[in-house]
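Fold this sequence, please.
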Amino acid sequence: MNKVTIAIHKLLATTWKGRVLFDINNGECEDFARDVLEIVPQAKEVWSEMFSMELVGHVWVEYRGKHYDAECPDGVRDWHDLFIFIRSKNESNAVQIERGEG
């Protein structure tokens, strides 16, 4: 395990213990990312707004080419693969189908 993965597991077992991961990523992600950065200052804070204002608002950390948040403590190579963005895309597609757009 790398430093960020260890930091996330540590935070989820202590400071953030008992919190629902979905809830952390949907309203508390900035605080969580900053807690990770306090432990691993070599990691970089990333905001979804850096890529597009149309994305769901989210903050995560990038470290050595992988992207991490509360729901992805092992990291993913492509930030699009963070669960929050997968869910957002699936929800958007569902709305389009309901409207007869898909």
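The first helix runs from residue 3 to 13. The chain has a mean pLDDT of 89.
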